[in-house]
Design a protein that fits this description.
disordered N terminus, 5 strands, disordered C terminus
Length: 519
C-alpha cells in the first residue's frame, strides 16, 4: 500500500507544483491534452471512415479467422459449440474446432453480430471501441505515475506508435487481452485486488500472453513487498482463466487440446511441426537467424527507434515509482519475445503487447525534466519528442505481409476467389482447396477444407469428407496456376466455373477411382 500511496503523493506533488507554476505550465498541460485529443480524434475518424473496408491489409487472415469464428458462434450458438472456437462455416467437422487461442474475443464479437449483423464494419467498430478504451486507460495509468501531462502524452505516444496505427483495427486477440491487462493494473493502483483478479481472468480468456504478467508482478513484489497481494491476485485470476480455457478445450477434444502444446513448441522453435492433428495450416520451420532478424526488424518497424531507445532507458533505470507498471507490462512482451520467437518474428501485430509500455516509456522520458524542475526549456524538450514521434510515424516504412501464395495472390485476389466460390456453389456444400488463408472462408461463406496440396492429397481428403459430411456436394476450387497439381481431378470433375482467379469443379468421387458416375 505504501508504494501506491507514495506514487499518488508524487503525482499530487507534480500537480501542486504545476498549479503553483507560471501560466505556461498550465498551457503545457492544456497542450498535452489537446494533442492527445487530436490524435484520438484522427484515429476515430480514420477508423470510422474505413470501418466497412474488407479484410485486405497485412495479416488480414487474422481478422478473417476471428470474424469467421464469431459468425459461426452467432449462427450455431455459443452454448451449442461449448465455447469452442470453430473457424469454418457450417457444416462443422471434427477438425474445425480451433483450440490454439482462447475464445473470448470471437464470443464477444458474436454477440455484436447477433445484434447488428455479421460484417467487416461491425468487426472494425468493435475493435475501435477496444482501441478507444485502451487509450483512456493508458492516459489514466500514465497520469497516476507521471502526472496529467505525462498521462496525456502517454496516450498520444500510444496512438502514434506504428503498430497501433497499422493494426489498430485488426481483429486480433492480443488487443482485447491488453485492454483487460491495463484495466487490471488500474484496479491494482486503486487497491481493488478482487477486481484486478477478475480482469486478468478475462485477459487470460482473451489471449495467452496475459498470463505472463504473473512473473512480472512477482518480480515487482520482490522489490516492493507491498505488491505481494496484487501478485497473488494476478496469479489466481490469470491462472484460473488459463485452467478454464484448458478445461473447455480438453472436454471438447483432448487431441486438439494437446495439439495446442505442439503449436506452442513450434512457435518456441523446439519443433519443426506446427500441428499433428490439423492437416491444413502447416508452416515450414523458421531458422534461428530468421527468428532473430524478424524480431529485430519488427521492433524497428512497429515501435520505431524513439520508442526502443525510451524502453531501453526505462528498463535500465527502473524507477521505483513505476515498478508496478514497468514490471507488469514488460514481462508479457519480453517473455513472449524470448519464448515464442517464431510467433513474434512472423506476426508484426504481436508488438501490440509492447505498445503500452513503449508509450509510457516515451512519456516518462519526455516529462523527466518537467517533473524534476518545471521550466520553459523542459517544456520545449517535451515538445521536441512529441514532434519527433509524429515525424517518425511518417517516415517509417509500412511493410506488407508476403502473400501466402505465389503469383501475387494477395488478399484482393483471395476475396475474388471466395466470391467465385460463393456464386458457383450452394450453401452447405463442401469446398476443398489448397489455400490456407482464412480470407476465402469468411467471404465464400462455405465450408472450406484447406491445405490440399495435389491430387494425391485430394484423394484421401475426399474419402474423409464423404465420411464426415455424407450427402453433401463436394467441390474443388483452385487458383489457375495450380491446375497442373490437380490435373486428374480437373479432368474427371464437372467444370462449374473458370475465371482468372478460380477454377471450380464438382466432385462425386475420389480421383483415381472408377469414373462411371462422375458428372
Amino acid at each position: 500500500m505504501s508504494v501506491v500511496l507514495g506514487e499518488m503523493a508524487e503525482v499530487r506533488a507534480v500537480e501542486m507544483e504545476s498549479d503553483a507554476s507560471p501560466a505556461w505550465m498550465r498551457i503545457a498541460r492544456l497542450a498535452a491534452f489537446s494533442i492527445f485529443a487530436l490524435a484520438l480524434s484522427i484515429t476515430v475518424v480514420r477508423a470510422a471512415l474505413h470501418a466497412g473496408s474488407q479484410f485486405t491489409g497485412p495479416h488480414a487472415f487474422v481478422s478473417a479467422d476471428v470474424a469467421t469464428t464469431a459468425r459461426t458462434f452467432a449462427s450455431q450458438g455459443i452454448w451449442k459449440l461449448h465455447w469452442i472456437p470453430v473457424n469454418n462455416n457450417p457444416p462443422i467437422g471434427p477438425e474445425d474446432r480451433y483450440t490454439h487461442w482462447p475464445p473470448l474475443l470471437p464470443v464477444l464479437l458474436s454477440a455484436c453480430f447477433r445484434l447488428f449483423g455479421a460484417s467487416e464494419k461491425v468487426s472494425h467498430l468493435f475493435m475501435l471501441g477496444v482501441l478507444i478504451s485502451t487509450a483512456i486507460l493508458i492516459v489514466r495509468l500514465g497520469a497516476s505515475w507521471l502526472g496529467w501531462i505525462g498521462g496525456a502524452l502517454a496516450g498520444y505516444f500510444w496512438l502514434t506508435l506504428p503498430v497501433v496505427v497499422q493494426f489498430g483495427d485488426l481483429v486480433a486477440q492480443q488487443q482485447l487481452a491488453v485492454l483487460f491487462l491495463l484495466a487490471a493494473l488500474a484496479a491494482y493502483h486503486s487497491h481493488r485486488e478482487t477486481l484486478g483478479s477478475l480482469l486478468l481472468f478475462l485477459a487470460a480468456l482473451s489471449s495467452w500472453e496475459a498470463i505472463l504478467v504473473i512473473p512480472g508482478l512477482w518480480l515487482a513484489s520482490l522489490r516492493l513487498p507491498e505488491l505481494r497481494r496484487a501478485a497473488l491476485s494476478a496469479a489466481i485470476g490469470s491462472g484460473a482463466g488459463v485452467l478454464c480455457v484448458a478445461g473447455l478445450f480438453a472436454f471438447s477434444d483432448p487431441a486438439l487440446a494437446a495439439d495446442t502444446l505442439q503449436t506452442a513448441k513450434y512457435y518456441m522453435g523446439l519443433s519443426p511441426v506446427y500441428s499433428h492433428v490439423l492437416a491444413h495450416d502447416q508452416m515450414s520451420p523458421l531458422p534461428f537467424s530468421a527468428q532473430i532478424s524478424g524480431i529485430l526488424w519488427n521492433h524497428l518497424w512497429m515501435l520505431g527507434a524513439l520508442a526502443i531507445a525510451a524502453l531501453l532507458q526505462l528498463l535500465a533505470v527502473r524507477p521505483k515509482s513505476g515498478t508496478l507498471l514497468t514490471y507488469s507490462l514488460a514481462a508479457p512482451w519480453i517473455l513472449w519475445m524470448t519464448g515464442m520467437r517464431t510467433h513474434m518474428a512472423i506476426h508484426r501485430f504481436e508488438l501490440l503487447i509492447a505498445a503500452p509500455l513503449a508509450a509510457l516509456a516515451l512519456a516518462w522520458l519526455a516529462t523527466a525534466e518537467l517533473r524534476a524542475k518545471p521550466s520553459k526549456g523542459a517544456v520545449f524538450k517535451s515538445s521536441m519528442l512529441v514532434g519527433l514521434a509524429a515525424v517518425q510515424l511518417l517516415i517509417l516504412p509500412h511493410p506488407r505481409s508476403a502473400p501466402r501464395l505465389p503469383h501475387d495472390y494477395d488478399a484482393q485476389r483471395l476475396i475474388r476467389y471466395a466470391e467465385d466460390v460463393r456464386n458457383a456453389t450452394e450453401p452447405g456444400s463442401i469446398v476443398l482447396a489448397p489455400l490456407e488463408s482464412a480470407v476465402p472462408i469468411y467471404y465464400s461463406d462455405r465450408h472450406v477444407v484447406r491445405g490440399i496440396a495435389d491430387d494425391a492429397a485430394l484423394s484421401g481428403e475426399l474419402r474423409r469428407a464423404r465420411r464426415e459430411f455424407p450427402g453433401r456436394q463436394l467441390y474443388l476450387a483452385i487458383p489457375p496456376f495450380l491446375a497442373n497439381s490437380f490435373s486428374h481431378a480437373l479432368s474427371k470433375g464437372r467444370l462449374v466455373a473458370s475465371t482468372g482467379d478460380t477454377i471450380i469443379v464438382a466432385l462425386t468421387q475420389t480421383p483415381g477411382e472408377d469414373t462411371t458416375n462422375t458428372r
